[in-house]
From TrEMBL:
Signal peptide: none annotated. The keyword Transport does not apply. Residues 123-222 form the OmpR/PhoB-type domain. InterPro entries: CheY-like_superfamily (IPR011006), OmpR/PhoB-type_DNA-bd (IPR001867), Sig_transdc_resp-reg_C-effctor (IPR016032), Sig_transdc_resp-reg_receiver (IPR001789), WalR-like (IPR039420), WH-like_DNA-bd_sf (IPR036388). Residues 1-116 form the Response regulatory domain. Keywords: DNA-binding, Transcription, Transcription regulation. Residues 123-222 bind DNA. PROSITE patterns: OMPR_PHOB, RESPONSE_REGULATORY. The lineage of its organism: Bacteria, Pseudomonadati, Pseudomonadota, Alphaproteobacteria, Hyphomicrobiales. It comes from Mesorhizobium vachelliae. This is Response regulator transcription factor. The keyword Transmembrane helix does not apply.
Amino acid sequence: MIVIVDERELVTEGYSSLFDREGVATAGFAPCEFGEWVSSAADTDLRSVRAFLIGDCRDGAISPRQIRDRTGAPVIALSEQHSLEHTLRLFESGVDDVVRKPVHIREILARITAIRRRGSEEAAYTEVGSMRIFMDGRDPEIDGEPLPLPRRERRILEYLASNRGRRVTKTQVFNAIYGIFDEEVEENVVESHISKLRKKLREKLGHDPIDSKRFLGYRLVF
């Protein structure tokens, strides 16, 4: 999930719509709401956040260092001002990157992936047996051949791969794929997506790489 902060509701809604087309969940905040949320949100909710995008906010309304106290997710400033002084002030405030608008959603996603890779030495992909799972929106490969997946199933597979070695709950998967504030979708939809994903992976791999335990959740295995 990506968190977007901007004074203008039309802006947060616009970005949410564009990210949704790429299969990426979002949550939008006005600056006056965001500070309280980020300081009080549960750790499990913050672990679902892939990045924070900070748009038009009055000076001092958003503190990247406050975000950093709670999570290591990248903080990217979306800037409508193209002056060097403004860009330097944004970096001095603690953001990881400054992106000048207008910018394509895919470029933002690529920058997020690059920052996370630098910060955690995360590879651009994860290999699980004969399966290569990319973290930049590409379909996974099995024995070098692409396996086309619907965007939700692909994002679930990416999320499981990014948490390789750890079991994640249905709620965590839902929050990462749909966003923590999506009340229009039932959480049980995760089970349907994972069932379809497992069937496709079994057909290609000859075994089920997703281990599930009731009440405990899911994890990716060899």
